[in-house]
Amino acid sequence: MTTRPYPWLIPVLLATITLVSGLSLLAGKVWIAPEALFAGDERWPIIAELRMPRVVLALLIGSGLGMAGAAMQGYLRNPLADPGLFGVSATAALGAVLSIFFGFAATPFVLSGFALAGAALAVLLLSIIAGQSGSVIVFTLAGVVISSLAGALTALVISLAPTPFATGQIVNWLMGALTDRSWDDVMWTAPLIAIGMGVIASAGRALDALTLGEAAARTLGVRPTVLQAQIVIGVGLIVGASVAAAGIIGFVGLIVPHLIRPLTDRRPSAVLLPSALAGALLLLVADSAVRAAPTVSELQLGIAMSLLGAPFFLVLLLKMRRLIG
Amino acid sequence: MLALAGGPLSAQPRRIVSINPCVDAVLVEVADPQQILAVSHYSQDARATSIPLATARRFAATSGTAEEVVALRPDIVLAGAHVSPSTLAALKRLRVPVQTFTVPESIAGSVAQVRAIAAAAGHPERGEALVRRIEQAVARARGVAAREGKAVPALIWQGSGLVPGANTLADELLRIAGFRNMSAAYGLKRWDVLPLEHLAARPPRVLLSDQTTGDRMTGHRVLRRFDGQIMRAQFDERLLSCAGPVIIRALDRLSSVRASL
Question: What ipTM goes with this model?
Answer without folding.
Answer: 0.72
